[in-house]
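For reproducibility, we list the full input for the zinc ion complex.
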Amino acid sequence: MNRVIGLVAALASVVLSPDFGHAQLSKPGVEKLYVLNCGEGVAGDISRWSPGVNEGKSMDFVDNCYLIKHAQGWFLWDTGVPDAVAAMPNGLAPADPKAVLWHRPKTLAAQLDQLGVKPSDIKTMAVSHTHGDHIGNVEMFPAAMLYVQKAEYDWPGANNAPRFKPEHPVTKLEGDRDVFGDGSVTILSTPGHTPGHQSLLVKLPRTGAVVLSGDAVHFKGNWDNRGVPSINFNKDQTLASMQKVSDTLTKEKAQLWINHDKAQRDSLKMSPEFYD
Ligand SMILES: [Zn+2]
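The corresponding predicted structure, in tokenized form, follows.
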């Protein structure tokens, strides 16, 4: 009898051991990452993002989306400025002239089409937060599972409107989430810019680890100086989230790709080129 119990215990230890789990997951995780042009614009006054610095100066902004090819399927991070803006000759002017006037030189739809990816091919997606330059095309993917922090989902919009269509499939998160269960794509809870803001850690086979900032930081100057935009929801949370991103960069030896930083984007390979 003792030998039977011993055998069961030995089998259980094999099944439960982390090494066994790794062997199961040794197939490639993330295969490719495409950087998509999801908007280009001009900020009227960049001191809106860096209080007391560069008052009255305008600055070029960009807006990226990121399409990830994982062995388990396509995953889209952020959806950018609405594709409809591409048809507006003067772009989309903001209510506050200090904010960003957006243009859409290329649509998201056209960039997916160029890659041979149909919107219905994308089964999972996430947005960093619910500002208009990040959620502009969520409903191009009405059946895709959307990963969003519960705090963001429940944050009342203008006139108490919901942030997303109630019928859109959603997984509400309360913290970090390993999307595919293999550690290759991890949503990082980074609140502060908005109540449920999130960033993304991606581990590429050749490029290595990359953190996609969302709007945890808007441009490199603010990253270097820990500048907190006056428009942010919570300053202390923003600073804590910047520290979390910084700690993640150190731990994972990761690069930080800042969504709205034009100088950095000008140095990146844009779709249809890709990172692997
Ligand atoms: Zn934002």
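The longest strand covers residues 30-43. The chain has seven helices and twelve strands. Both points were considered when choosing residues for closer inspection.
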